[in-house]
Amino acid sequence: MASTKSEKGWKSRVHEIIYEADTPMGKWFDILLFILIIISVLLVMLESVKWIDATYHRILLVLEWIITILFTIEYIARIATIKKPWTYIFSFYGIIDFLSTIPLYLSYIFAGSQALLTLRAFRLLRVFRILKLVRFLGEASLLRNALKASRAKITVFLFAVFIVSVILGTVMFLVEGEEAGFTSIPTSVYWTIVTLTTVGYGDIAPITPQGQLIATVIMLLGYGIIAVPTGIVTVEMGKQANVKKDSGNEHFVHVNTQACTTCSKEGHRDDAKHCYNCGSEL
Amino acid sequence: MASTKSEKGWKSRVHEIIYEADTPMGKWFDILLFILIIISVLLVMLESVKWIDATYHRILLVLEWIITILFTIEYIARIATIKKPWTYIFSFYGIIDFLSTIPLYLSYIFAGSQALLTLRAFRLLRVFRILKLVRFLGEASLLRNALKASRAKITVFLFAVFIVSVILGTVMFLVEGEEAGFTSIPTSVYWTIVTLTTVGYGDIAPITPQGQLIATVIMLLGYGIIAVPTGIVTVEMGKQANVKKDSGNEHFVHVNTQACTTCSKEGHRDDAKHCYNCGSEL
Amino acid sequence: MASTKSEKGWKSRVHEIIYEADTPMGKWFDILLFILIIISVLLVMLESVKWIDATYHRILLVLEWIITILFTIEYIARIATIKKPWTYIFSFYGIIDFLSTIPLYLSYIFAGSQALLTLRAFRLLRVFRILKLVRFLGEASLLRNALKASRAKITVFLFAVFIVSVILGTVMFLVEGEEAGFTSIPTSVYWTIVTLTTVGYGDIAPITPQGQLIATVIMLLGYGIIAVPTGIVTVEMGKQANVKKDSGNEHFVHVNTQACTTCSKEGHRDDAKHCYNCGSEL
Amino acid sequence: MASTKSEKGWKSRVHEIIYEADTPMGKWFDILLFILIIISVLLVMLESVKWIDATYHRILLVLEWIITILFTIEYIARIATIKKPWTYIFSFYGIIDFLSTIPLYLSYIFAGSQALLTLRAFRLLRVFRILKLVRFLGEASLLRNALKASRAKITVFLFAVFIVSVILGTVMFLVEGEEAGFTSIPTSVYWTIVTLTTVGYGDIAPITPQGQLIATVIMLLGYGIIAVPTGIVTVEMGKQANVKKDSGNEHFVHVNTQACTTCSKEGHRDDAKHCYNCGSEL
Question: In this structure, what CATH number is given to the domain that contains residue D47?
Answer without folding.
Answer: 1.20.120.350
